[in-house]
Write a structure and sequence with these properties.
The protein folds into two domains: 1-36 and 170-341, no CATH class; 39-168, no CATH class. 6% of the residues lie in helices and 35% in strands. It contains three helices and 25 strands. It has helices spanning 160-165, 171-176, 313-322, and strands at residues 12-13, 15-17, 20-22, 44-49, 52-57, 62-63, 68-69, 77-81, 88-89, 105-111, 123-125, 128-135, 141-146, 151-156, 168-169, 189-193, 196-200, 206-213, 227-237, 252-256, 271-275, 278-282, 290-295, 304-309, 324-325. The strands form six sheets. The chain has an eight-stranded mixed β-sheet, covered by helices on one side. It has a seven-stranded mixed β-sheet with strand order 6-8-10-14-13-12-11. It has a three-stranded antiparallel β-sheet with strand order 4-5-15.
Length: 341
């Protein structure tokens, strides 16, 4: 199951300069921008959409674009991701016991609309310019727009102010905006697959599969730190539970080689980056807790898909910067951990 595609960004080409990722400045310089906070309190954690994240209780269910989820509201809140109105939570008459009220807290987080934002911002949150306006119509209420992060946010309920005040750049933004630069944290393991070389922490388990259509898509988030190497040669569709549980950002990496029956494809529009000489396209259809890249390799007619879990900026950034092209005849191997120098 894949989420509904959201509007793509304009085509931009970035390049890797030395050990750091270069990206055109779209807002305040890195030194003036906040770092991604970890859980703001026990039971809370960051939830990302594109270049932004907010803190919410981890017990709150999350509904992804194009989905409607029904269930009890005992957790005290619900988060709806995607363009306002593209995801929904069933009303009490449909799924909840008689007399149960709707969620006490409701959060909407999605892409920026086409509205313009002239003049001075209404407020700043940790240095991020935010425009506040009242929406009328099917989705009504006060919306908070952050153009530099490309998102709109709405929140209602007793915890609304706390959620809005937690707005910050996401791990994805830090990785692509050059603020996740640093050496690999200790000995990492070098790996080869599908024409790519890359490095991962030695504690991550490695799984190999041939299924092109699995039940645990990492496009949203990884269930645990891991490496998955997928040959995409088996086109059988497994019986999968529905809906899949929503998850927060976790480190990990998956390489999908692609095949004639399940080819990878480069997004028509979107962000393009260059890492160690490799052209990569960021797939904006999955703006959640994973960075989805289509990597062009010389001699291949279709790209290799690389999905990096966005648990922490330092680890995700180090995995991204480790990706290189292998010589055409290099076999798939896994080496012993080597100390990064």
């Amino acid at each position: 199951m894949r989420p509904v595609t959201v509007p793509a960004l304009a085509l931009v080409v970035l390049s890797l300069s030395g050990p750091s990722l270069a990206r055109p400045a779209t807002s305040a310089p890195p030194s003036a921008r906040p770092v991604v906070p970890q859980a703001t309190a026990p039971g809370w954690g960051p939830l990302a959409y594109g270049d932004a994240q907010v803190g919410t209780p981890t017990a709150w269910p999350v509904v992804y674009p194009g989905s409607e989820v029904c269930g009890p509201t005992g957790a005290g809140g619900v988060v709806l991701l995607g363009s306002f109105g593209s995801s929904s939570w069933c009303g009490p008459d449909m799924a909840a016991p008689a007399g149960q009220s709707p969620p006490a807290n409701l959060v909407r987080l999605g892409p920026l609309s086409a509205r313009r934002y002239p003049g001075r911002p209404s407020m700043t949150i940790d240095g991020i310019a935010v425009y506040k306006e009242v929406l009328h119509g099917q989705i009504s209420g006060t919306a908070y727009s952050a153009p530099t992060l490309g998102i709109e946010l709405m929140a209602s309920g007793p915890l609304a102010a706390r959620v809005i005040g937690s707005l910050a750049p996401s791990v994805r933004d830090l990785v692509l905006e050059q603020r996740a630069v640093g050496a690999q944290p200790g000995p990492w393991r070098s790996m080869n697959f599908a024409g790519l070389g890359f490095a991962v922490p030695p504690s991550w388990p490695v799984a190999r599969t041939t299924y092109a259509f699995g039940c645990d898509p990492p496009d949203i988030a990884f269930s645990s730190p891991s490496v998955t190497l997928d040959a995409d040669s088996n086109l059988a569709r497994l019986p999968c539970p529905y809906p899949l549980p929503a998850r927060r950002g976790t480190n990990g990496v998956q390489i999908d080689a692609g095949s004639a029956g399940a080819p990878n494809s480069v997004p028509a529009d979107g962000l393009r980056i260059v890492v160690n000489g490799l052209q990569m396209s960021v797939d904006e259809a999955f703006p959640f807790s994973a960075l989805v890249l289509e990597v062009d390799l010389p001699g291949r007619t279709t790209p290799v898909k690389v999905t990096i879990g966005l648990g922490t900026a330092s680890t995700a950034g180090a995995v991204l910067r480790s990706i290189t092209a292998l010589p055409p005849a290099a076999p798939a191997t896994t080496s012993a951990p080597a100390t990064a120098g």
